Amino acid sequence: MKRVRAYTAMVLVFCVLVIFIYSTLNLEPANTVISTEEGSQRLRRGHDPEGQLKSTHEHTSFTTAEMSTAVLQTVSVSKDLREMIPKNEAYWNRLMHTALKGLDDGDYSFARESPWSLCRVENQELLQLNIHDFSSYPPLLQTFVRGMTCKSPPILIDQPNKCVAANRKEYNQTFLLLAIKSSPRNFEQRQTVRETWGREGVHHGGLTVRTFFLLGNSTQDDPDMSALLSYEAERFGDILQWDFHESFLNLTLKMKVFLQWTLKNCPQVSFIFSGDDDVFVNTPGLLNYLKSLDASKTENLYVGHVISTASPLRDPRSKYYIPMSFYDGAYPAYAGGGGFIFSGGLLQPLYSVSRVLPFYPIDDVYFGMCAKALGISAVAHEGFQTFDIKEQDRSNVCVHKHLMLVHQRSPQQTKKLWRGIHSPMLTC
Length: 428
Ligand SMILES: *[C@@H]1O[C@H](CO)[C@@H](O)[C@H](O)[C@H]1NC(C)=O
Ligand SMILES: *[C@@H]1O[C@H](CO)[C@@H](O)[C@H](O)[C@H]1NC(C)=O
Ligand SMILES: *[C@@H]1O[C@H](CO)[C@@H](O)[C@H](O)[C@H]1NC(C)=O
Known about the structure:
It is a single chain. The chain is an alpha/beta fold. The protein has 2 domains: 2-26 and 33-72, no CATH class; 155-421, Spore Coat Polysaccharide Biosynthesis Protein SpsA, Chain A (Alpha-Beta Complex), CATH 3.90.550.50. The protein has 15 helices and 14 strands. The strands form 3 sheets. Strands 1, 2, 3, 4, 5, 6, 8, 11 and 12 form a 9-stranded mixed β-sheet that branches. Helix 14 links the parallel strand 13 and strand 14. Helix 7 packs parallel to helix 15 (411-422), helix 9 packs across helix 12 and helix 9 (251-265) packs across helix 13. The longest helix has 44 residues, at 2-45. The radius of gyration is 28 Å and the shape is globular. It binds 2-acetamido-2-deoxy-beta-D-glucopyranose (NAG) (3 copies).
């Protein structure tokens, strides 16, 4: 009898044990779900344990690679542009035709970008082999050519939430995005723009204007502006900065990273203004013009001061000097980089063709080439004056009231003109 009781007790203990083990087994998946959720939450906040971050990283780079090939599969370059670029010995021409051939054959190796940290290793010897007079290029142009395939600098100051609505699920509609090329030291110009034509907010008629200043990094010879810039970025929320040297010949890179950034962070934008921080813009006039456009014109708009019959300048002393051995051909009609407008709907196609066209040292010419690749021609508008107006009209407020943009004005002139065009006493 005792034996039977002991036996029953053992069975009972066993059952309890089995139930216990079973319940822990059952609990485990639930636990895993929780911990994964925690993990991804931490991941979103950027504090993830190594392992999980790594696998997410792999996943991201995989999708990016996949996406970039997909992007290239959808790119087509117009016959117009193909015919405009002569097939000859010049370096850029050769790069361009290699890219076009790759595009047609589905061989996208031409579009491979080196990781930023390994960039600029394109050695002197290789370039001298390809460009017979490379060593006679001005030093900055040599630097440009060496870095032509470096296209993905890391971002230093970001504004990821500026275009996102309060519920974080959708983007707030932006009617006009002002993308202003600036440089770390130009605080005075930026502040003038903020106080005048670049004021953010909802303008008359409910049109939202948002402003971004696009900056590179100061060079070693400049004083370190990073502390001031972080303060400025926090105070005004309108600074975007990438880790490349601020330089005239890096403006094409600035355009490329801006297109990419906007596609990701601010895709819901109707029009984009790209321009300098030392121009005067009649924003109310611009908004009226854009609002008045026919629906058929708003989709592929590219408007500004059009330079229609330009070709490369061959004077080595010019800021815009292009040696014959670099590019031999004409320029497309393009809108002067001091300030022009394009449709938000062009962001994606422009970004895609910019993956095909090799970088060019002059950013507005490059933009014109990309537009031409899409079959879009620049529309000339009298109101854009990137080469300034007649000397005697330069302080005439009435003349400015009828303009869209004029280059170039000092901060003081800009403030005066802005007050002037808004004065109720003004009778033009
Ligand atoms: C988005 O729009 C809502 C309402 O229209 C506004 O309250 C909010 O501040 C806007 N967000 C940004 C980032 O402008
Ligand atoms: C670029 O920016 C980073 C971060 O602000 C800074 O540490 C670095 O020194 C800058 N580079 C140069 C060359 O100034
Ligand atoms: C462009 O930026 C890169 C990265 O900072 C720099 O190494 C290069 O010298 C710059 N190019 C020119 C032409 O200044």
